[in-house]
Amino acid sequence: MRYAAIGDSFTEGLGDEMPDGSLRGWADLVAAGLAAAQSEPLAYANLAIRGRLLEPIVTEQLEQALSLSPAPTLITLNGGGNDMMRPGTDTARLVALTERAIRRCLEAGVRLVVLSGADPSARLPLGGVVRRRGEALTAATTELTSRYGIEMVDVFRDAEVRRPPYWSPDRLHLNAVGHQRVAGIVLSALGYPAADAVDPGPAESRRVIAEARYYREHVLPWLRRRAGGRSSGDERTGKYIDWVPIGAV
Predict the structure, then answer these.
(1) So what's the architecture of 2-203 in CATH?
(2) Rounded distance between C-alpha atoms, residue 130 and residue 121, angstroms
(3) What's the pLDDT at 235?
């Protein structure tokens, strides 16, 4: 099996930092779970880059994945989260881009699994807008994948992972336990064993001082990047742009 993951920070693994500063994330955990299930090494690539909109994921990352040699046997696609954070989100356009990815993988004979991202809206500024856009995109993508017979893993509607203890201090990215939760959802959806659930522990404080720190450390820097037309993923590449072996641990 050769598994390539494409997407944005959700798939890159932001929020699941290792002691050496590297990122892990749900896709890495899924790769390890697949290797363990088949009791032999698996080839893995992760081309996801934080901050990416769905269009470059479909037009650039997908083509990069399909050009790997040998070709992947499995690709997971997630995107649209960054699009939903911008004004004037066009759900129909995002669905059309997803359909383009589906058609491209069908033509290439590569198994595609589409994921909806985890729902961060509960504690975000303007979270209600994000929730409505996410619900609309998830519903439309579910209908699209059903029509094509493509596997869809719905993480957005998972009520458990919406709880605060699964999220990083920026409230936009999952923490290590959140990524473990998503990996379990994906492996189970694909018919493979998932690790036992991990207790996420208590939620962080929501006192006035903590809220002020959150806005200062996370919201304002994000607004400055948007105002300057910059992305957190500028000048970055995927963390595994060619096949790496994942052992059957």
Answers:
(1) 3-Layer(aba) Sandwich (3.40)
(2) 6
(3) 76
